[in-house]
């Protein structure tokens, strides 16, 4: 069986089940009597085992089988899920995750050493561990299955109950020159993956003829709801010896018993049943190869389809080209005053807007896909740091573009680890401050206009601006003059500078001088911004503002000399006209005052190293006031052109080092306009 075509589906399904295992194990840790959690854990482990075995990944299948033995004892109330057992199950899930990651990277799955884990799981299953046995009972595995008794005897009872439909199918097969065989398959006592063996048997029989009945039914075979034998009725033109030798060629098949079914007389089947017989191609047929690695709970009958992100990217690029050409047609219609073209473009505008909206929605995924990894992260970090922490998650249904989702995970990990290590105090210290022993860490997401706000909060010690300022001064990051003129909020933002850390001790969690600058760089690369608010002994709030999408945005087009630049509309606060007399110099910086607020200005021609235009009208100056968080800045331009929908194109590797420019777009007339990076300009 060529399984390579199913690899992508196997990896996706495996990750889903591993995530489910993590989430439900957390529930089990909180409530060891949670039967729903136990059953869900067992189902996920069982499905992962079958999928892995079908794909030939025996190391994954064997580890999940050992987990399953322990989970089965917990499920049947023969074992209590204490802290040690849950810890070992968590470590087993981590090992499975490493194995799946190895498979995805093209490396051997069995390069992960799980010998110690297997020994512990087997010890728990046999009652030779710290796990407490809840009830004493006979071990099922030691009891010989009833239907396996006497299976070596060729004269064993081979009776099987046939319905009228079964009999009619058998008669019709005989009329076509086929024979009906009752086949009993007996597995070896040492077989651990019974569902996989039954699947392989069914697949082999499917090549030899038609399986019209199985006892137990196919669904029970998939879920291993049988002992060591099962029966099928096969309609085939092959000889008994061929069927027997084919099945015995499958590993862990101990014995195959075949009996030709002979009916005494034709069966009179009612018309309704005859119609049913005619409609059945293969009743109780084996699970097809593709289904064998897909959990039935995920089969939605075509309601949802998995689509590769590269296909969505291609679709978005095509929509982007459509938007560009629509703008071009609109400009041609207006320039040449072609009424029919203008009317057609208006209709085209509605269609492209709807198409763009649908494509955007298709690319949107809930941030819960990222958030759901953090309960496990917080749990492990709390144990490692000896702290008690409760994580709360809000707004996990908030949707973001898939490309943003893929990149936001690592920055959030840094922020969570920072809150756990630097923010949340030790339980004894919290108690001494009059705080609850259990600290709080929050993950919050919500929409705000055309942006998504993600906040990481904690009720820990907060940050001391003076300590951060002194540390920055000591490291030479700032000068004494900078330190003297710095506000508390500006001092706190120093944590985002490269290599800055207030930790004196290097640990695995933090203190290596990396992390917060990586967070800022990643967020800014996504077109977002990050800010922090803190209060001593009350905690900190890290606030990330991200665009909903990175593909098509509204922008304001401006002129500097003959060049056109685009400023994202989401960053613009207002546009104003001023005179040279309105510009004041404060601390060597040009500023303007708007409604009592002092705002620094940036001359765009100087920032871009462009000489001023010869016909520049110094009596009228255009200022675009932009904002990042609560900070504002005025960008001085030569002329305002107007608002337009633009398609963002990356500059490519060759021009990736230009910080003031975040990308480019193609205008309706075919001209290239560069997109300004507001965050960098404000710095």
Structural account:
It is flat and about 110 Å long. It contains 23 helices and 22 strands. The chain is α+β, with helices and mostly antiparallel strands. The longest helix has 28 residues, at 309-336. The protein has 5 domains: 4-141, HPT domain (Four Helix Bundle (Hemerythrin (Met), subunit A)); 146-294, Alpha-Beta Plaits, CATH 3.30.70.1110; 318-365, no CATH class; 367-547, Heat Shock Protein 90, CATH 3.30.565.10; 552-682, CheA-289, Domain 4 (OB fold (Dihydrolipoamide Acetyltransferase, E2P), Beta Barrel). It has a 6-stranded mixed sheet with strand order 14-18-19-17-16-15.
State the end-to-end CA separation. 59 Å
**CATH fold annotation of the largest domain:** Heat Shock Protein 90
Computed over alpha carbons, the radius of gyration is: 34 Å
- Count of all domains: 5
Largest sheet: spatial strand order = 14-18-19-17-16-15
* Number of beta-strand segments: 22
Name the CATH architecture of the largest domain: 2-Layer Sandwich
CATH class of the largest domain: Alpha Beta
Shape: flat
Helix content percent band: 40-55%
Tally of contiguous helical segments: 23
Tell me the strand percentage band. 15-25%
Per CATH, the superfamily of the largest domain is Histidine kinase-like ATPase, C-terminal domain
Q: Pick out the low-confidence regions.
A: 130-155, 267-301, 510-514
Helix/strand-derived category reads alpha+beta
* Average pLDDT: 81
Report the biggest beta sheet as strand number plus sense, adding barrel if it closes. 6 strands, mixed
């Amino acid at each position: 069986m060529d399984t390579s075509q199913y690899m992508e589906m196997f990896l996706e399904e495996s990750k889903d089940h591993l995530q489910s295992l993590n989430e439900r194990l957390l529930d089990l840790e909180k409530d060891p009597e949670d039967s729903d959690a136990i059953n869900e854990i067992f189902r996920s482990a069982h499905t992962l085992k079958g999928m892995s075995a079908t794909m030939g990944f025996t190391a994954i299948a064997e580890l999940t089988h050992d987990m399953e033995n322990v989970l089965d004892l917990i499920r049947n109330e023969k074992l209590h899920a204490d802290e040690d057992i849950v810890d070992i199950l968590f470590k087993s899930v981590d090992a499975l995750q490493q194995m799946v990651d190895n498979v995805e990277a093209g490396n051997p799955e069995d390069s992960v050493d799980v010998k110690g884990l297997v020994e512990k799981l087997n010890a728990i299953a046999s009652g030779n561990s710290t796990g407490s046995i809840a009830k004493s009972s006979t071990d099922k595995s030691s009891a010989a299955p009833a239907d396996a008794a006497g299976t070596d005897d060729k004269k064993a009872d081979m009776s099987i109950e046939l319905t009228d439909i079964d009999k009619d199918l058998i008669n019709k097969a005989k009329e076509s020159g086929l024979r009906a065989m009752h086949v009993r398959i007996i597995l070896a006592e040492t077989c651990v993956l019974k569902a996989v063996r039954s699947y392989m048997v069914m697949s082999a029989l499917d090549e030899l003829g038609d399986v019209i009945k199985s006892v137990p039914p196919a669904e029970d075979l998939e879920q291993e709801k049988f002992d060591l034998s099962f029966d099928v009725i096969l309609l085939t033109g092959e000889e008994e010896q061929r069927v027997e030798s084919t099945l015995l060629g499958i590993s862990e098949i101990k014995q195959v018993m075949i009996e030709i079914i002979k009916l005494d007389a034709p069966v009179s089947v009612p018309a309704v049943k005859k119609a049913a017989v005619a409609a059945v191609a293969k009743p109780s047929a084996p699970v097809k190869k593709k289904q064998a690695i897909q959990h039935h709970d995920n089969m939605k009958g075509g309601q949802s389809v998995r689509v590769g992100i590269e296909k969505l990217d291609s679709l978005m690029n095509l929509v982007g080209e459509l938007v560009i050409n629509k703008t071009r047609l609109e400009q041609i219609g207006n320039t040449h005053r072609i009424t029919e073209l203008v009317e057609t473009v208006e209709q085209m505008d509605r269609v492209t807007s709807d198409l763009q909206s649908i494509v955007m929605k298709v690319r949107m995924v809930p941030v819960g896909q990222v958030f759901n990894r953090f309960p496990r992260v917080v749990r492990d970090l709390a144990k490692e740091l000896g702290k008690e922490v409760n994580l709360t998650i809000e707004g996990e249904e908030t949707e973001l573009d898939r490309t943003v989702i893929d990149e936001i995970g690592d920055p959030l990990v840094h922020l969570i680890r920072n809150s756990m290590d630097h923010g949340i105090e030790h339980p004894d210290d919290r108690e001494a401050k009059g705080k609850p022993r259990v600290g709080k860490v929050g993950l919050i997401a919500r929409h705000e206009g055309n942006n998504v706000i993600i906040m990481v909060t904690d009720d820990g010690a907060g940050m001391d601006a003076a300590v951060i300022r002194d540390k920055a001064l000591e490291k030479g990051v700032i000068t004494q003059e900078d330190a003297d003129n710095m506000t508390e909020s500006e001092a706190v933002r120093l944590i985002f500078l490269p290599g800055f850390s207030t930790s004196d001790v290097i640990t695995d969690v933090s203190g290596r001088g990396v992390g917060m600058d990586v967070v800022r760089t990643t967020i800014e690369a996504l077109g977002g911004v990050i800010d922090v608010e803190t209060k001593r002994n009350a905690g900190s709030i890290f606030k990330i503002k991200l665009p909903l999408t990175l593909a098509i945005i509204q922008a304001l087009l401006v002129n500097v000399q003959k060049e056109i630049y685009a400023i994202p509309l989401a960053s613009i606060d207002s546009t104003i006209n001023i005179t040279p007399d309105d510009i004041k110099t404060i601390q060597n910086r040009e500023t303007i005052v708007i409604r009592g607020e002092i705002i620094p200005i940036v001359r765009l021609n100087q920032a871009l190293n462009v000489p001023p235009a010869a016909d520049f009208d110094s009596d009228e100056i255009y200022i675009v006031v932009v904002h990042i968080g609560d900070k504002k800045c005025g960008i001085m331009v030569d002329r305002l052109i107007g608002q337009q929908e633009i398609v963002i194109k990356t500059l490519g590797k060759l021009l990736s080092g230009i910080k003031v420019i975040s990308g480019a777009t193609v205008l309706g007339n075919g001209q290239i306009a560069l997109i300004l990076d507001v965050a960098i300009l404000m710095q």
